[in-house]
Amino acid sequence: MVSSTLTTSPALIPELIDDLPNISGWEADVQAVTSENYPVFLPTTNLRLDDLSATFAIALHMHQPTVPTGYNGAPIGHLQYMFEHSGEGDNHNAGTFAWCYSRMGDFIPELVANGCNPRVMLDYSGNLLWGLRQMGRGDVLDNLKRITCDPTYQPYVEWLGTMWSHSVVPSTPIPDIKLHIQAWQHYFAAVFGWEALARVKGFSPPEMHLPNQPDTLYEFVKALKECGYRWLLVQEHSVETLQGEPLQDKHLPHQLVARNSSGETVSITVLIKTQGSDTKLVAQMQPYYEAKTLSRRSLNGISIPPIVSQIGDGENGGVMMNEFPPAFKQAWHQMAQNGGKSGVLGVNGTEYLELLEAAGVKSEAFPTCQAIAQHQLWQRVSPENTTPDAVAAAIAAIQQENPNFHMEGSSWTNDRSWVKDYDNVLTPMNQLSAHFHQTFDPLLQATPESSQTPITQTPRYRKALLYNLLLQTSCFRYWGQGAWTDYAREFYQQGEAAIG
């Protein structure tokens, strides 16, 4: 295991409590660990910024929702459902999906043993990690632990945080945004350990969905920073310059500025995921080949290599199942043949940003951006007159003039709304969230911090929180009306029963 670099070293925490995932109860420990600000990759990286002409970073997104199809409607992972109903649809691919979730644990050691210098970022939802444990696939988790915790392989692999239950941020009730983030951190620490959690500094939002409603975006960025995240991956067309124009150089890090309806601002570093067919681009290692067409840039008077950032489903579709493994390995072998330490190379996001900082490039030097369509809004609301009423009036006026204007945010696709026509999911989702907070927030405020058993460690709280987060899973809208909205209704009823 990696030797301890934490100044605080909490005791190990259980993965499961009463057969439910450990998603709350250790908030103080999570906060202490994620607040550690030491360099993550800089002490171990074998790259030198001066030797790089251009870089690329790829992330693999993995998710399986939780569905109420177990015994008596118990929640189980959808992968387990696929194995148990192999005759339905594409469920015969369940074994291949499971292999895809595990295979980086084989690919990275193989490439390193063969003299390659690979990099990969991993984004696994809390649902998936829990579902693998539920169905007895500890072998998959153990394979991932090898590349996460073994110091031989840890420098090549970066985990990205995400929302625990794959909730799209723009339609997540604001009080639940931080709960999702913290729930994922809890469960990740329970599976991989506190040292591993301390190294998770980048965040991957589900469906690459970035809110543009000012208060939602502000609370999202604020929660990320409070939870110890240093940077966020965003889709190219989900952001704009502060003048409302497309980004001038998508291959540079940016500073995302979030301003709420009260005039408060907060910012976070973002890496820009380029547009295109996500899965196909990652499967064919297109970011590597695009990086080969780029050259160094000057930022704040310092020469740096640009970065091509891309994320795609790590398991979904024939292109990822079949084309990705040989393309992934071929690219790293090609780089190794050229020396593997200079020219165009792969990096992980935090590694790249730490190399820039060590070279004197501070985040304040990055170009600024904001969420798409906010320029139209801020043109009408002056900084000295930023109030909730002024912002609401400006949004209403713009929508009156332009029916296509919306504050639903932007995701990897512009042809899908996560809000329109889904009142049958969003209404109970908001009702359950409101009931959850009406019930537990007063108890949390009334309980002293010195209490031996925090409210968040009680079985009732944990179960209620679980169902509140599960109901917000994007799949209950992504897959349309029918069985998936029925699943949402069942989780709503189980959540209400859990709250009592």
UniProtKB/TrEMBL annotation:
InterPro entries (UniProt xref): GH57_Enzymes, Glyco_hydro/deAcase_b/a-brl, Glyco_hydro_57_N
Gene3D superfamilies xref list: 3.20.110.20
Transmembrane segments: none
Any Pfam family hit: Glyco_hydro_57
Any one biological process term the GO annotation gives: carbohydrate metabolic process
Glycoside hydrolase family 57 N-terminal domain segment(s): 99-238
MF-aspect GO terms: hydrolase activity
Domain of life: Bacteria
Keywords: Carbohydrate metabolism, Hydrolase
Family of this protein: Belongs to the glycosyl hydrolase 57 family.
PANTHER family assigned: ALPHA-AMYLASE-RELATED-RELATED, SLR1535 PROTEIN
Stated name of the protein: Glycosyl hydrolase family 57
